[in-house]
Design brief:
DNA-binding; Tetracycline Repressor, domain 2; mainly alpha; elongated
């Protein structure tokens, strides 16, 4: 086993090359030999880090969702609506700035219908995202935050599907933001504090 196979960052370079390959050619065009050439390694090194095409696909999906969540992290803000809206702003800005991400997410979502390995990886990644969205909406109970989180995920997945439409992406962003703000408006969701009853006076003897 060559020392070059164990060099730090080698696996990351392979996954990044595979990510670019999926963005350019789709999952059907993903070839381990092509990934190795793009990463500057031989195919034995690719197999050392990711032993099968299924492992490579799983790594690409996880990499895409990691990029997604890392760049779209919400701020620490006391208002749940502001946390989610900021997250959405960053999500859609990322999709516009990095078209590769939308291509990869759309490709794996479509491929998941036919490949159980991809489907399981997508389900796990989306579950992490759903839980992150629900945490952003705390202290809203899960029976309310869960449907909103699923709506956000479905809307963003739909926005990633081809053909690319920047104007449509921006329109979807505005409408989704408006809906989330309506549902998470803390001013209407939080009951007004009760006015304490005036103390009763003891009647004079």
């Amino acid at each position: 086993m060559g020392t070059s196979q164990r060099e730090p960052g080698r696996r990351d370079a392979i996954v990044e090359a595979a990510y670019q390959c999926v963005a350019d050619k789709g999952l059907y065009g993903l070839r381990m030999r092509d990934v190795g050439a793009a990463a500057g390694v031989n195919i034995a090194t690719v197999h050392y880090h990711l032993t099968s095409k299924s492992d490579l696909i799983r790594a690409v999906v996880e990499h895409g969702h990691d990029v997604f969540l890392r760049h779209a992290a919400p701020p620490e803000h006391p208002d749940p609506a502001r946390r989610v809206v900021t997250h959405l702003d960053r999500v859609f800005a990322l999709l516009e700035d990095d078209p590769r991400l939308a291509h990869v997410l759309a490709e794996v979502a479509l491929h998941a219908r036919r490949d159980p390995v991809v489907a399981q990886t997508v389900i796990q990644a989306e579950e992490r995202w759903r839980l992150a969205l629900e945490r952003m909406m705390a202290p809203l109970p899960r029976r309310q935050s869960g449907p909103i989180a699923r709506l956000v995920i479905l809307a963003v997945k739909g926005a990633c599907l081809p053909p690319a439409d920047p104007a449509g992406l921006r329109a979807a962003r505005r409408e989704l933001t408006r809906l989330v703000e309506l549902r998470l408006d803390t001013r209407s969701a939080t009951p007004a504090p009760e006015t304490p009853a005036p103390p009763q006076r003891t009647p004079a003897p």
